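Database export, one record per block. Field names are fixed; values are copied verbatim from the stored entry.
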Amino acid sequence: MKVIPIIAAESGSESLYEAQKKIYPRQVTGKYARWRWAMVWLTQLVFYGMPWIEWGQRQSVLFDLAARRFYIFGFVLYPQDFIYLTGLLVVSALALFLFTALAGRLWCGFACPQTVYTEMFLWIERKVEGERAARMRLDASPMSLEKLVKKWFKHVLWIALAMWTGFTFVGYFTPIRELGMEFLQTRMGSWEVFWVFFYGFATYGNAGFLREQVCKYMCPYARFQSAMFDKDTLIVSYDAERGEPRGARSRKAELSTLALGACVDCNLCVHVCPTGIDIREGLQYECIGCAGCVDVCNGVMDKMNYPRGLIRFTTQNALALGLEGKDLVRRTLRPRVLAYGAILLALCFALLASLATRTPLKVDVIRDRGMLSRIVAGGKLENVYRLQVMNATEEPQRYVVKVSGLQGLVVASEAQVEVGPAESRWLAVRLQIPYGSATPGSHPIHFDVATASGDAHVSEKSVFLVPR
C-alpha cells in the first residue's frame, strides 16, 4: 500500500494512507485463462460432488468427529492414525516449496480457494452487471431502479453460492444427506448452523469484497515467497529490452521504422490483473502468477502481427542472458528443484506404501486401575485389563485375544469379540497365573489380537503386577 501524506487544512489532521481503489478486472481469454477455469471446474466438482458419492453404503469422504473416525473411500482412520495427517501436511508443504521454486505462485494463480471463488464471484458479477466498463459506469452512476435491481440480484446469487459452499463444507463432518433432511425439517444443530453461516460468510466476504486484499495483505505466502524464489524461478515477466520504449502506434506501422519497442502501452495488462499491478514495473509481491497479463498481451501482439511473449513465464536469468528453450529448462531444473522433487516422491511413495500395508485393526490396552491384583478361587493370581478393539474394515470381524510373557499365563475371560464394520468395542479381559509362579514386581506381557482368519494381527505391550 502506498504511503502518501495528505494534510487536511481545516481539521489539521494528517492521513498517512491512500484510499483503496476498487479493482475492476477485465475478462480475458487465452491458454492460461482456460487452464484457470479448468482448475475451477476440477476443484469445485471435487469439493461439491465428493460428499454426495456413496462408498459401501456410506458417504465416500466423511470426517466423523463425534465418533472419532475419518472415512476416506475404503480407508477408516482413527485418532491413532494421526501420523498420516502429519505425512499429508509434510507432502503438501514440500509440494508448495517445489512448485514455488520451479514456477512461482502457481498455487495462488490457479488452485488457491481465494482465486477459485473470486473467479466464480466475478463471473456472476459480469453476467449481472456487464463487462469492466459497464461495471465502472454502474458504480459511478447515481442510485436508480436498474442499479438497485442489478446490485440486489448479484448479491442474492453471491449469498446463495456462499451458503451452498458453507453447507457443503459442513457436509464433510455431518453426513450431507442427513444434514439436508435436518435443514428441510429445520432441525439442524446449533453448531451445524454456526459453521454453515460462518464458512458461507467467509466465502461471501473474501470472494465478493476483499478479493485482492486477501492476497496482498492477509495471506502470509505473499510475504515469505521471496525466500523460495531465486533468479532461475519461472515467473510472469515483462521483457523490457524488447518492449521499451513503449508507445501507441498504428497497426499498419512497421516496427522496424519506429523508435519504439513492442509494447503499445495499451494498459490491458493492468486492466486484467486481479490485484491491480503493472507487470511492466518488474517482479512484485502482489503478483499471484495467474498469467492473465500473458494472455491479453499475446492477443495484442497477434493483432499487431508482432511475435508473442512480450509478457511470458520466464526467469530473471533467462531475460538477462537471453536464454530460451533447452537452455532455459536446464537452468530451471536446478539441484534445488531436483532435490525437492526427489524428497517429495520418496515421501509420497512411503505414505502410499504405509497406507497399502496398514493393518486394519487397532488395539488399546488399559489396566483396570479400579481392580488391583487379587487372588481368586483355585489359587490363581488375577489382573484385569480393558481392551479397545477397533475394526478399520467395512466388514464385521471376529477377533481372538491371546497373551504371552509369563509361565502359566492364561485368559480367564471371554477371549473372542465381534466388532461391526468401522466400529470399536471395549472388552474386559481377566488374566491369571498360578499363585507363586512369578516373583513380586511388574512383569512385561504381550496381548496378541488377531482376526479369526488370521488376516490381521496386532501385538500390544502391557504389564502383569505381582504383589509382594
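Remark 1: Residues 1-10 have pLDDT under 50 and may be disordered.
Remark 2: The radius of gyration is 32 Å.
End of record.
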